[in-house]
## 1
Amino acid sequence: MMEVRADYHIHTALCRHATGDMEAYVLEAEAKGLKEIGFSDHAPAEEGFDPNHRMVLSQLPEYVKRVSELRKAFPAIAVKLGLEVDIHPGFESLLETMLREFPVDYVIGSVHFIDGTLVHMEHQESSIEGRNRLVRRYYEILEQGIRSGLIDIVGHLDLVKWAFPGMKEHIRLGGNDILRAIQEEDLILEVNTSGWRKPPREVYPSPDLIRAACSMDIPVCFGSDAHSPEEVGADFDRGTALLEDAGYCREVLGNHRLRIFLPEEEKVGSMEEKPNLASSKRDW
Ligand code: ZN
Ligand code: FE
Ligand code: FE
Ligand code: ZN
């Protein structure tokens, strides 16, 4: 069985809706046998954008400093500095500034709002056409982030199934188009296990989309989306079984030296066609 040794989606109390010392997250990761952990707390956004669920810009230096302190305090485990960024119209410039000023190792791009409509809450009020439109718009916003050149990992790709549980087929088809964008932009798809402990009761993205991603040779990484220390690495065994079933079989170091999973080599194609895989080879 493949072993998952890194959890790249971890929050901290700085975002105001997660609990526990950052140190407790690292200790939990060590206790669970992980070799690597990446904090990816909700990044600051421009004024007025969902202020209760993120750190403010003036807290970013403290977050960066804490991660580097933990890196020194726990030499047996790699501690990376990430950010989970809310993709929304106009998100680029603040992110560019943060990436210029801080040594961020990777960015997870996620959509939590469809023009003000919360994605992680069930919505029943709109018509079929209205729901179709919102699902389409969700993916449109996500694609904007994927094409921005500013994100590395696509977070909980089909989170929108939480908002519209009756739209499974629509969400899968839209997700398939997004996989093409991920492939074209050479990004990493996150397998986010928090879906299993949240109302969708299904991993993000769905097993169908994970299988599709594998057939497209899209690299994946793992994230628990922990908002408390005990959630670090949650359901990674279950996620690993699913990945193996889909055809993923080996761990390599990918872009930014992130631990990613790929399908068998034969399925991957030549290195000329796939510069991302060439660079993962070099990293070995
Ligand atoms: Zn959160
Ligand atoms: Fe998120
Ligand atoms: Fe998150
Ligand atoms: Zn998340």
## 2
Amino acid sequence: MEVDGRFPYYAQGSVVKGFGRGSKDMGIPTANFPDEVVDQLPAAFDQGVYYGWASLDGGPIYKMVMSVGTNPFWNNERKTMETHILQKFDSDFYGKSLAVCVSGFIRDNVSFESLDQLVKTIHTDIATATVVLDSEKQKTFHDSFRKWIDQ
Ligand code: ADP
Ligand code: MG
């Protein structure tokens, strides 16, 4: 496989309110980063759907998928970084510190014909991330991320 120098990319910031367009109702809540964190992203991350690791307030590390871009389906203007953690939480965590390790690319962030198609594709993204993140290479990213969080 080709080496992609963008990874791993670490980011951290407090979880803010997003556009509230009901990703939660679709079963795919996405924790949004503040604009300052989005603005720090290198140009190479202009858009895309990525996978990696996430941790809240220095706690356990979970698998995640992250969407970067202007969300073509929704015609937003501002770029967002939205993290869906592959873990069920009993309550919201707005205001908590979210740390992410972006460790691989899944696909371009393109628009879809329908909401149904978008949701189906996100489920495929989640399935992809679940498998890939079990690889040895991703375990080393996980371990380095743990050190980065704890430092
Ligand atoms: P918003 O538009 O405010 O981002 P969402 O519908 O995308 O609203 O829901 C995101 C919020 O849901 C997060 O900020 C977080 O507090 C909560 N949440 C609960 N479970 C998860 C999860 N597994 N991954 C991401 N966010 C989650
Ligand atoms: Mg969101």
